[in-house]
């Protein structure tokens, strides 16, 4: 087992990856919007965070699908310099909910190969993709296995976030570097919880290709909740971005009246929600 390593959750995997593979001054290009832990963890490893924002749709209607947020391919390549070491891809994306298409993944793979970059593929939401969309693993594309490190999370897959078990799959040279970091930091991951996770995986694997599988039921259940939440937000004048996968949903609040904004502009972030709820009817 030289091409996989267990970590303390997905966040623990990220931290170990950056500490193992990023040297001071190395740049990491991250497609945004992005998980808020990426930047501080990259910087903690001595790296430089470089954001590459998705392009929102022009003249967007109130309900926007996350697929309408697209990559500016020319701008993405302009972000890459001689100091760039890694490109981080998160699909399905947290928090935007975008599931990158096969064509988009292929273009990202081509960029990584052309610029000789490591690709960190954060796939913790790979099973939370809403029909009819599909998840594609960038490591499976030609020329990508040897430069890709893929991470997953038991908490996201099975709804057991408190267990804090994640995993990383990739070439032996990457996994060996991560092992060196973990051996001298966290040392080990809870053995009883690893056993519980192993039994869970063994139980769901036999029906992974069937229509009755656990993962399909979960994605359908979440898709139904997503649709209800979209309608709820729209009913009060907010403009949701409809996610194709994951747990999260963004909403455009720019059309909310200015009365609340005037009273909350100088408040601390921790006071914002309670004040908004009490003043905006």
Automatic annotation (TrEMBL):
<dbReference type="InterPro" id="IPR015424">
    <property type="entry name" value="PyrdxlP-dep_Trfase"/>
</dbReference>
<comment type="pathway">
    <text>Amino-acid degradation; L-kynurenine degradation; kynurenate from L-kynurenine: step 1/2.</text>
</comment>
<dbReference type="GO" id="GO:0005739">
    <property type="term" value="C:mitochondrion"/>
</dbReference>
<keyword id="KW-0032">Aminotransferase</keyword>
<keyword id="KW-0663">Pyridoxal phosphate</keyword>
<comment type="similarity">
    <text>Belongs to the class-I pyridoxal-phosphate-dependent aminotransferase family.</text>
</comment>
<dbReference type="InterPro" id="IPR004839">
    <property type="entry name" value="Aminotransferase_I/II_large"/>
</dbReference>
<dbReference type="GO" id="GO:0030170">
    <property type="term" value="F:pyridoxal phosphate binding"/>
</dbReference>
<dbReference type="GO" id="GO:0016212">
    <property type="term" value="F:kynurenine-oxoglutarate transaminase activity"/>
</dbReference>
<dbReference type="InterPro" id="IPR051326">
    <property type="entry name" value="Kynurenine-oxoglutarate_AT"/>
</dbReference>
<feature type="domain" description="Aminotransferase class I/classII large">
    <location>
        <begin position="3"/>
        <end position="256"/>
    </location>
</feature>
<protein>
    <recommendedName>
        <fullName>Aminotransferase class I/classII large domain-containing protein</fullName>
    </recommendedName>
</protein>
<dbReference type="GO" id="GO:0097053">
    <property type="term" value="P:L-kynurenine catabolic process"/>
</dbReference>
<keyword id="KW-0808">Transferase</keyword>
<dbReference type="Pfam" id="PF00155">
    <property type="entry name" value="Aminotran_1_2"/>
</dbReference>
<dbReference type="InterPro" id="IPR015421">
    <property type="entry name" value="PyrdxlP-dep_Trfase_major"/>
</dbReference>
<dbReference type="InterPro" id="IPR015422">
    <property type="entry name" value="PyrdxlP-dep_Trfase_small"/>
</dbReference>
